[in-house]
């Protein structure tokens, strides 16, 4: 567990970070049970917060919750658990719980470089539903505080770390070093599995990089995967915040066309009412 949070602090923590999570609520109980109705806990891919009673019951529910997250199954379920020998608990009662999975944010971005433009960009992205990894070799370039949805990755080898960091994600290359920019472009094109590459620079820089990449054996389609100059041409200005606004506008337009928003499906009222009234006919998890 990262730090001790109760369930509602954990919900706020996950929402701020854009992290998927499952909220588990005890809806009803019969007989002797470890926790009372309305007890709640939060389960993420790696951590759990608060408790609905511990023991094998909680272990099994955490397993089911993480299976849902792994399958990106963001639906709701009412489950009924008799607290008998099959759960290794001898309370003799039973518990009905509501399991609600929440998707968090689906868009992920990796930013290389912590200069003026990157710092302005992170200020904007802190207000948007993105999960951001911010990479630089220079620890002193990162601000003392960053938005909750931004994770700092300080490394001595950004090029070596790039393939693992960037798989399936949008990438922005905003570093202070042209050779580092080129090495990142070459490495990411070789890996070939990020969602897109934006490179800061002029038309002249774009042409030079195109020639160098051609010389390294990359074809026109591969090179065309790099957007340089990055940002929307119809958003003018060269100040860091103006460039950051331009880049953000481009990112939003790119991701809007491939929207990955997940529809949350709750339980139909008739099904929920029937399960509450007749818990023994519900989904028996033994």
Report on this structure.
The chain starts with 6 loop residues before the first helix and ends with a strand. It is α/β, with parallel strands linked by helices. The strands form two sheets. The chain has a six-stranded mixed β-sheet with strand order 3-2-1-5-4-12. Helix content is 36%, strand content 22%. Strand 2 and strand 3 (48-50) form a beta hairpin. Mean pLDDT is 87; it is low at 281-286. It is elongated, with a radius of gyration of 24 Å. It is built from nine helices and twelve strands. It holds the Pfam family XdhC_CoxI. Residues 109-251 form the XdhC Rossmann domain. Residues 16-72 form the XdhC- CoxI domain. This is Xanthine dehydrogenase accessory protein XdhC.
Structural class comes to: alpha/beta
Mean pLDDT: 87
Strand content: 15-25%
Largest sheet: 6 strands, mixed
**Widest β-sheet, arrangement of strands:** 3-2-1-5-4-12
Overall geometry: elongated
**Helicity range of the residues?**
25-40%
> Gyration radius, to the nearest Å?
24 Å
What's the total number of strands? Answer: 12
Task: Quickly count the helices.
Answer: 9
Which regions are unreliable across 5 or more consecutive residues at pLDDT < 50? 281-286
Distance between the termini: 27 Å
Q: What is the N-to-C order of secondary-structure elements (H for helix, E for strand)?
A: HEEEHEEEHEEHEHEHHEHHE
Domain XdhC Rossmann: 109-251
Domain XdhC- CoxI: 16-72
Organism: Marinobacter zhanjiangensis
InterPro entries: MoCofactor_Util/Proc, Xanthine_DH_XdhC, XdhC_CoxI, XdhC_Rossmann_dom
């Amino acid at each position: 567990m990262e730090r001790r949070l109760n369930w509602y602090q954990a919900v706020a923590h996950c929402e701020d970070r854009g992290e998927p999570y499952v909220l588990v609520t005890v809806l009803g109980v019969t007989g002797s049970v470890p926790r009372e109705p309305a007890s709640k806990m939060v389960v993420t891919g790696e951590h759990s917060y608060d408790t609905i009673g511990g023991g094998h019951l909680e272990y099994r529910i955490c397993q089911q919750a993480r299976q849902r997250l792994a399958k990106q199954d963001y639906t709701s379920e009412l489950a009924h658990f008799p607290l008998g020998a099959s759960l290794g608990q001898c309370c003799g009662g039973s518990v009905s719980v509501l399991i609600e999975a929440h998707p968090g944010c689906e868009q992920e971005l990796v930013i290389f470089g912590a200069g003026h433009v990157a710092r302005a960009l992170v200020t904007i992205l802190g207000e948007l539903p993105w999960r951001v990894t911010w990479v630089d070799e220079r620890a002193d370039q990162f601000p003392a505080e960053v938005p909750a949805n931004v994770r700092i990755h300080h490394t001595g080898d950004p090029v070596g770390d790039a393939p693992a960091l960037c798989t399936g994600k949008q990438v922005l290359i905003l570093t202070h070093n042209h050779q580092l920019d080129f090495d990142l472009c070459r490495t990411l094109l070789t890996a070939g599995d990020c969602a897109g590459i934006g490179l800061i620079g002029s038309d002249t820089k774009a042409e030079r990089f195109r020639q160098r990449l051609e010389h390294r054996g990359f074809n026109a389609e591969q090179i065309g995967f790099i957007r340089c100059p990055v940002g929307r041409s119809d958003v003018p200005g060269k100040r860091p915040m103006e460039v950051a606004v331009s880049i953000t506008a481009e990112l939003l337009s790119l991701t809007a066309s491939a929207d990955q928003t997940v529809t949350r499906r709750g339980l139909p009222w008739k099904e929920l009412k029937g399960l509450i009234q007749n818990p023994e006919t519900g989904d028996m998890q033994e």
